[in-house]
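Supplementary Text 2. Reproducibility record for the structural model of the 535-residue chain.

All settings were left at their defaults, and a single model was retained for analysis rather than an ensemble. We include the record here because the model underlies the residue-level annotations in Supplementary Table 4.
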Amino acid sequence: MTPLFSLRPARGSPSLIIGLLLLAGSLIALPLPAKTLRFASAFDPQSMDPHGLALQYQTRVVSQIYESLVSRDRNFAPEPALAMSWQHIDPKHWRFKLRPGVKFHDGTPFTADDVVFSIERALAKNSQRSFQLRGVQAARRIDDLTVDFVLDEPDAVLPEKLINVGMMSRAWCMAHGVVEPQNYDARQETYAVRNANGTGPYRLKAFESDVRTLLAANPQWWGRRGNVDEAIYVVIQSDATRMAALMSGQVDFVIDPPFQDVARLKQEKQFKLVEVADIGTQYLGFDQSRDELQFADVKGRNPFKDLRVRRAIYHAIDIDTIVAKVLRGQASATGSYVSRLVDGYVPELDRRLPYDPSAARALLKEAGYPGGFGITLDCVNVAFRAAVCQAIAGMLSQVGIRATMQTWPTATFFPKITQATTSFFEFGWSPLTDAWPTLNAIVHSFGTDGAGTFNGGRYSNPRLDRLIEAIRVEPDAARRRQIVGDVLRAMNSDLPLIPLYRRTLTWVMRPNIGVAQWPNDVLELRFVDIGDGNL
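Retained model, structure tokens:
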């Protein structure tokens, strides 16, 4: 059996070795069951509250613990979860039949009362999941295993919007004072941040922020899962340390290997690699609400309100070079705001505006900024994203836009977007296959009802709002796709955001590990099987 930690020196600097020793210190005291998966990522889940946060990095962990009424199968298609079936009774009325015999991790039964409570909680003021539920007036208990959803307008695709809306125990939340979701933007600390009580295939044993999360298989789970008895999710921000942990046998699986290592890993064939195109997209966003930018040297004006300036920035970015040099070919440049996996995708919109610094300078001059201007570019302190931001800043300098890159930890960066306290920012969005939640979240005008929750630039376009609302209430699938196309074409013309690229998601693991890879970069432990062999 491979030891959990070897004292064989690792290649690298003394700080790398110290990092590995610290990592080992966090793991070595844990006795490993026969089927333990140790998987690593650069990202901390931040919180266990399923409604307090809506980050992909949180979903990787929370989705193992808290289940939704609707989930996805191995092939990423929607499937029944805590709801066994659903029926569209009339345009404003859906009925969900719940799975009998389901229990929370504390042994209490899951009933319709918990669904009603969870939906109300997910719609509450501080919930970051409310954007998915716009239009839901109420969830009503019919009996212990039946819940009706009452809508303010027709919604033909409500079931998919319930994916990732975790079901919580009403009694547990009341007992621990967490009836309301955590206010993540205010860095509120509640019992639900570090404790959990779901119905899912794995129970939370411990959550140590920025260190590790321990999950144990739920023996009374209703479904079928793989053979992972215990999972240890380890946060290792340093690319070099994360890969050294894999090489030395301290972890078995890395969700986010550094781009520069992928080609070598494929050639060496020591580990198994699986790849899929990301359903998500990376963007640049702008403050388009303030009359004067907060973090710029322009006084009395906001350049980003001018389409010519936004087009100039688009023309100034050589995204093909960034993909080739910075991301080592592990991405695809795109001009589309959504991927081909999203219903309503328009193929011709993938074509980007050309890289053309001369056109960029001409547009800036025409807009009244012949000498450019200075601006702060906010980015999350993740190695590959920071490197992309640095490259973009260099390209913008060639046309006169003096972008000073500022990196932030995730706990600071993401509230800057939800609170709209950034002037210029890079961010990513991983959508559902239905286009409406994405469009509602990132480009709809901001509102208190869940609209524009992640519209960090507070862009507002009444025509787009009307089209986005029309998507939500249109019952005909073909007509919905047509309206989605209209929205995407309008965005392509007005540039509320600048689409950049989609990653190639690569996971690297020990050869005896089998997984189902989803295009949203979430590893579902219920689909993991560890074959015979040494761990």
